[in-house]
Amino acid sequence: MSHRKIVLVIVEGPSDETALGVALSQLFDRDKVYIHIMHGDITSRKGVQSSNIISKLGNEIRKYANSQHYKAKDFKQIIHIVDTDAVFIPDEKIIEDESAKEILYQSDGIHTQKPDEIIERNLQKKENLYRLRKTGQIWNIQMGLY
């Protein structure tokens, strides 16, 4: 009997797991599917840049694998699902709005009290997404970014 390989799905939060878990389990009926919640977006975390995003994500994957007593050979693939948070909109669509108590995504743009912080976050996240997109594997495991 052959050993079933693990499909590791990385999502940002519990709502992503709820929304995607059943569907992904049905897609990979011959494989074990595990959903790992990152508890936040690694691509926009402070200190995570395009120069270290691969190692930071690799560390997260190894930490998960070690906690479950898995090795790289136990994995079939990694599916990393990210939220783009409107990072590809033009900077001029990031609107200073003193009444916005939190970041508001509106039809005319992103409303925030601190547009410079959103512009910086978007640049960081965009660079990290471009870097991850070019990476076909992490920890010698096939990885796809979606």
Any overview of this molecule?
By secondary structure, the protein is of the alpha/beta class. Helices cover 34% and strands 24% of the residues. The chain has helices at residues 14-27, 53-68, 115-133; strands spanning 6-11, 32-37, 75-80, 94-96, 104-106, 109-112, 137-138, 141-145. The strands form two sheets. Strands 2-1-3-8-7 form a five-stranded mixed beta sheet. The longest helix has 19 residues, at 115-133.
Quick structural summary:
By secondary structure, the protein is of the alpha/beta class. It has helices at residues 14-27, 53-68, 115-133; strands spanning 6-11, 32-37, 75-80, 94-96, 104-106, 109-112, 137-138, 141-145. The longest helix is centred in the C-terminal third of the chain and has 19 residues, at 115-133.
| Secondary structure tally: strands | 8
Count of helix runs: 3
Largest sheet: 5 strands, mixed
Structural class, by secondary structure, is alpha/beta
Elements, N to C (H/E) = EHEHEEEEHEE
The amount of helix comes to: 25-40%
Which strand order spans the largest sheet, edge to edge or round the barrel? 2-1-3-8-7
Given as residue ranges, the uncertain stretches (5+ residues, pLDDT < 50) are none
Strand content: 15-25%
- N-to-C span: 32 Å
- CA-atom Rg in angstroms: 17 Å
The outline comes out as: elongated
